[in-house]
Amino acid sequence: MQVISTEALKTFVNENIDEFHNNKARILTGIQLKKVLLSKNPYLFKAKNLNSANDLINDVLSAYLYSSEEKVFGDFLEKLAIFVSESSCGGRKSSATGVDLEFEDDGKYYLVSIKSGPNWSNSSSMARQIENFRKAVTVRRQNYPNDNIIPVIGICYGKKKPVDKGTHKVVMGQSFWHLISGDTGLYKQIIEPLGYKAREHNEEFIQEKSRIVNLFTQEFVEKFCDNGNINWDKLVEFNSGNYPTTPDAN
After folding, report:
1. How far is CA 41 from CA 35, 47, 80, 221, in A?
2. Where are the domains of the chain?
3. Is the CB of residue 103 less than 8 Å from the CB of residue 182?
4. Contact between 132 and 97 (Cβ < 8 Å)
5. Each residue's pLDDT tens digit in the chain (250 positions)?
């Protein structure tokens, strides 16, 4: 493998990190209080003793935005990983379902599904991933029957050591970035350029988020508060009320 230069890494990140921030900002565009409240657990709000409308809105909006940001940043990390592999050993974005990256190194052909973090799966999604690997391996063997094909779930951060599951391998954190680059220190090198224009973008985002919090708080008070107190029955009914469960129920 050819070790990617620090300058090439910085250039790629600097040229592409704006897309992450722009996509993050779009999350706030057209956002509605109804959508945010319906996506979160009202019982948790009560259990956390969120009795101030402003505190509740800040909490629920932050949780909503965090889950959305994770997806947006995961897309960026996937692009970064493909660029690193492409630069290091001629890797390429895969067209196979459930596979993001393909590359060859040291006589092995890797089919990699890139995950941003370790908590990505449940039993059904894991079964689906294994089936996607099976199909991708079958297609590859049709044209290259002698290839040593290794399916890999590559996780961008995490502490666990590499594991061979039989159907696939799992590598995360430093081991993942080393696999696709041949550089044991790359996982540290990528952190610095990610801060490019971060303060500028975050100031704009925080200002817009504050505006949304104020608007949502005003709307929440009008719809779910009585004399300044949160009407929890009304909030829970809005979030979860659906009785009768069938059209012909009595």
Report:
1. 12, 10, 34, 18
2. 6-240
3. no
4. yes
5. 888 888 898 889 888 888 888 888 888 888 999 999 998 999 998 999 889 999 999 999 998 888 888 888 888 899 999 999 999 999 999 999 999 999 999 999 999 999 988 988 888 999 999 999 999 999 999 999 999 999 999 999 999 999 999 999 999 999 999 999 999 999 999 888 887 777 787 888 889 999 999 999 999 999 999 999 999 999 999 999 987 766 665 5
162 to each of 127, 173, 247, how far by Cα in Å?
19, 10, 52
Q: What is this structure's pTM?
A: 0.80
The first and second tokens of residue 131, run together, are 């089936």
- Report helix, strand or coil for 113: strand
Q: Quote the tokens at residue 112.
A: 């990699």
| Long-range CB pairs of 123-132, under 8 A, 24+ apart, other chains included | 128/98, 129/98, 129/153, 129/168, 130/167, 130/168, 131/98, 132/96, 132/97, 132/98, 132/99
Name the one residue in this structure whose structure tokens are 């009914």: 237
Q: Which of 165, 167, 172, 72 is nearest to 117 (CA)?
A: 172
